[in-house]
Amino acid sequence: MSDFYFNKLMNLNILTIGLGLIILFMTACNTSHNQESGKHSDIRPEIEVVGAMKNVMWKGELDGNIYLDTIANKTGLYGLGPLSELKGELLINNGISYVSKVLSDSSMTVEKNYDVSAPFFVYGNATDWQEIDLADEVKSVADIERFIIEQIDDYDKPFVFKLSGKVKSAMIHIQNLPEGSKVSSPQEAHVGQQNYTIENVDSEIIGFFSMHHKGVFTHHDSFLHMHLITKDESKMGHLDALEIDKMKLYLSKN
């Protein structure tokens, strides 16, 4: 081999090694940054979305687009949405399906039942969680949204989270649309909705976060959709307002 080709080969090898070292260094720095920042950057489970909130609100699509008993994998299953015809609220919490319905302005029924359907529904499986202590100033729904954003690096994919602990006060609602109603606006969709106040109760809050699903499974002004269920399973509904006493946040990471 001539000196000319030998030198070219050596220069090419040196360049290749140099590029490899640069890539290795950048990868190590990025990993170190994620570890030092404490941000949640693990690969999250896939989230499934069926139907859309906006189609219910504006197009009156109240019929079931998904029957919950058709979801095959119920291990570590979480999900939420309204009951078909807007007659109640649905929550799947760790594989158990709950249905809440209005009895009166002060009472409700909560039963375990998979034989129900939803016009829109978001769900996914999670069995491995990262536990995070909430900062003292995190008290409200808006605070939770900001705090979650501070914990994550990947904003592109939706994910499930939960909070567990004591609620100082909360406002939840259950949809209760009158029989035969037609819906073509959010105002019409909320006719019959019943609000309930919860105070000083141990509870779990199941939520889904997304920056890309406004009008699909979150409202137009939020990245969150959350349902609350009390630990005694006597009350469950869509979470509208919250004042936290002492709770922990759990982000799915498997």
Automatic annotation (TrEMBL):
One BP annotation, GO: acetoin biosynthetic process
GO MF, one term, reads: acetolactate decarboxylase activity
- Give the Enzyme Commission number: 4.1.1.5
Q: State the source organism's domain of life.
A: Bacteria
Alphabetic keyword roster = Lyase, Membrane, Transmembrane, Transmembrane helix
Q: Where are the transmembrane segments?
A: 12-28
InterPro entries from the UniProt entry: Acetolactate_a_deCO2ase
Judged by the first EC level, this protein's enzyme class is lyase
Q: What is this protein called?
A: Acetolactate decarboxylase
